[in-house]
Amino acid sequence: MGAAALPMSVHLLDVQGLSKTFPLKGGRSIRAVDGVSFRQAKGETIGIVGESGCGKSTLGRLILRLIEPTAGDVRFLGKDITLLPADAMRAMRRHMQMIFQDPYASLDPRMRVGDLIEEPLVIHAIGTRADRGREVARLLDTVGLPTEAARRYPHEFSGGQRQRICIARALALRPELIVADEPVSALDVSIQSQVLNLLMDLKRERGLTYLFISHNLAVVKYVSDTLAVMYLGRIVEMGSTDSVYADPKHPYTQALLAAIPEPDPDRARDRVPLQGELPSPEHPPTGCPFHPRCPQAMDRCRREVPLPLERGTKERSHTVACHLYD
Amino acid sequence: MALFSVDELAVSFGRGASRVRVVDGVSFAVDRGETLGIVGESGCGKTVTVMSAIRLLPAPPSHIDSGRMSLGEVDLRSLPRQSLRDIWGNRIGVVFQDPMTSLNPTYTVGFQLREALRLHRKVNAAEAHAEVLRMLDRVGINAPERRLAQYPHELSGGLRQRVLIAMALICRPELLIADEPTTALDVTLQAQILDLLRSLRDELGMGIVLITHDLGVVAEFCDRVAVMYAGRIVESAAVKALFESPRHPYTDGLLASIPRLATVKGSRLPVIDGMVPAPGERPAGCAFAQRCPRAEARCREAQPLLAGSPEHRFACFNPV
Fold it and tell me: Do the beta carbons of residue B239 and residue A265 sit within 8 Å?
């Protein structure tokens, strides 16, 4: 569709200054996402990592405009989707789909699997009934499920199979962009690798662009070309995955990488255990949001918010928002 | 003599024709100061095994079909209910996965901790108060005095898990059962809690049974590990031996399929095809045979028993 004619220089996704503030009772509010900016090229997989409450899921929902931003814009295929009226937005959603963490909660238990996968095609009035039936069979095959699965109900499937059904449903409209929010976190280890392989195969075959949200750094590293690390609503470090893992610059990224338990008893453990917990986003610290937990915090960190600075090479961008690199 | 030993435990659920064997022929032992990891995927029976072994699982619906379980000189299998109450929370501490549902939302943290202590120790109010403060401080809670008056919902997830650990340890148990104690926590908090458990283990000299699905946590935290699949232990060894040279194809496949930081981006992850058979549908021979790349005809006919050396045991006819 429109995407095929996209000139090379235009990014598939261009997010600028995106913020979301949720009101609380009593006039209080929390800023879940705070001035996030990045660009994503077609076919690029961006991994968003961070701990619970860092705003990564809110960011994913803002990008699909499942919730309305407080400030900033999201350009998709060159159009600012935050300004689109409802019907134009619905048409735009064909090109952007989401896969959620919990495959149990994402499928209506009263609908047959075939109808669940066909539903997006019906809503967008695509094809005849027979066309859609054939497409459902093709989609089931694509995600590695037998054709007869169409006649069964979600409860008859295991967690991994249900996630395959969700993936088939997300693929039905042949989207450009898929926002995958913790797509394998609810699955057992032996099933995780099956689903990750499927997602990677689909990317190769269909040229999909993924925004992959996860708390699991090893999983994100495996799938992503570019990595963004979030802390309290902000991107604190972003760059090519290889360069962020080889040379993590932000003290938070360093602590996060050191804290991952790796299945290797001989791995050298020179970790600096991070003290404390994520502060409440209702009362974010002044200055750098990470300063109360940062082993290298300076006076300036308590006063000034660090802005993202380019510290990469010409070929590989690597930005970090930390006063240590000013 | 081992601190805690379980011998040939078999547990089933349901009654009559719908009775299903969930755990079968499980044996393990833990010494003082030692950490045993019991690892496996959802439904493998790891929690049922350990909670049945300390008789904490309600019966019915569960039923211990056979087995011997002992804590030191005490035979846990034959112990009457009342005597079990003297052991739980006293000689055996338990930490569960979800700190929110394990604490009573209607009582203050201080009340719940004091109650846990006074249930088993004859101490007056002042002594209980002092001991609770000491324990909260020991688990790394700042300003413990202030926390005593708070309710669980006022605490962050990390603090709640620390309170739960303090409660499990307040009577200085000989054995700590920790069921996915860090699964609900973020990775930086997980590292803090595991460090804490390790130092408390060394200080109190207790044995720990850690139930987890996370092989990374096992590698970091445990001395020995037992891998469970479909209700049985399929391999057990010292952590180093198991990770360096897994012998059971399931362990081998599981270790290979985890994306690690060193995994090459975009390379295909090795997978274990298919899925775990449900308890009522376990095949006659080895339960892993239908997913196993090394399966032979006899694997589908007979159940392989744990064999190998006492230090490294595996239940497989055709080991890696």
Answer: yes
Name every residue whose Cβ is closer than 8 Å to that of residue B146 and which is 6 or more positions away in sequence.
none
Task: Identify the three-state secondary structure at position A264.
Answer: coil
Checking ipTM against 0.85, whether it exceeds it is no
Residues of chain A contacting B218 with CB distance shorter than 8 Å: 263
From the list A242, A265, A278, the residue facing B239 with the nearest CB is A265
Cα gap A131→B14, rounded to integer Å: 47
Judge whether B2 and B29 are in contact, CB under 8 Å. yes
Cβ pair B186:A51 closer than 8 A: yes
Please name the amino acid found at residue A305.
Answer: V
Q: Which residues of B touch A245 (CB under 8 A)?
A: 261
Residues forming beta bridges with residue A210, ordered by sequence position? A178
| Calpha distance A130→A144 (Å, rounded) | 21
Nearest to B138 by CA among B117, B121, B163: B163
Interaxial angle between packed helices B109-118 and B125-138, expressed in degrees from 0 to 180 and rounded to the nearest 10: 110
Give CA–CA dist B108/B147, Å, rounded: 9
pLDDT digits (tens, 9 = 90+) for A107-149: 999 999 999 999 999 999 999 999 999 999 999 999 999 999 9
Q: Residue A148 and residue A140: Cα distance in Å, rounded? A: 9
Q: Indicate the residue of A200, A219, A264 with minimum beta-carbon distance to B266.
A: A200
Of A160, A193, A259, the CB nearest to B269: A193
